[in-house]
């Protein structure tokens, strides 16, 4: 099968079973660094804004995805939003059962054109619904490390 071969059925895709013993280091980049510092140091969310396209990005971007203009306007975003979609997770990353199911959701952040994938907390899995209003719950400042997990979870409003 050549590089330009077009698949017409999912079963035609080639796959190789096995493991790749690699490690990698993810860098946040300039926008990510400023975003995660605001979460860690101040317990707030930042977004970038393209004034030409009237789009606000969270997580922030350095360039507009629509017009490619460099984004230099940073604004504080609300820590509230709503559940856009969600999944109830019963297994951990190793495929082992979790003690209790967890809910992971895409949270559309109020006042922005973006959102975050994160855990929901203080709500039973069978009570979650699309459109549910939620707010971020930040870890204690002494426990924050500069990652998305500095937000412990989102809880219903």
Tell me briefly what this model is.
Helices cover 9% and strands 36% of the residues. With 157 residues, the chain is mainly beta. It has one domain (29-156): OB fold (Dihydrolipoamide Acetyltransferase, E2P) (Beta Barrel), CATH 2.40.50.140.
Output the keywords:
157 residues; OB fold (Dihydrolipoamide Acetyltransferase, E2P); three-stranded antiparallel β-sheet; mainly beta; single chain; five-stranded antiparallel β-sheet; 1 helix
Describe the 3D structure:
There is one protein chain. With about 160 residues, the chain is mainly beta. It has one domain (about 30-155): Beta Barrel (OB fold (Dihydrolipoamide Acetyltransferase, E2P)). About 10% of the residues lie in helices and about 35% in strands. The protein has one helix spanning about 30-40; strands spanning about 45-50, 55, 75, 80-90, 95-110, 115-120, 135-140, 150-155. It has a five-stranded antiparallel sheet with strand order 6-5-4-7-8, with no helix packed on it.
Rg (C-alpha, Å): 19 Å
CATH class (first level) name: Mainly Beta
How many domains in all? 1
Structural class from helices and strands?
mainly beta
> Approximately what portion of the residues adopt beta-strand conformation?
35-45%
Which H/E pattern describes the elements?
HEEEEEEEE
Can you give the mean pLDDT? 92
- Largest sheet data: 5 strands, antiparallel
Helical residue percent band = under 10%
Count of strand segments? 8
- Number of helical segments? 1
Q: What's the CATH architecture name?
A: Beta Barrel
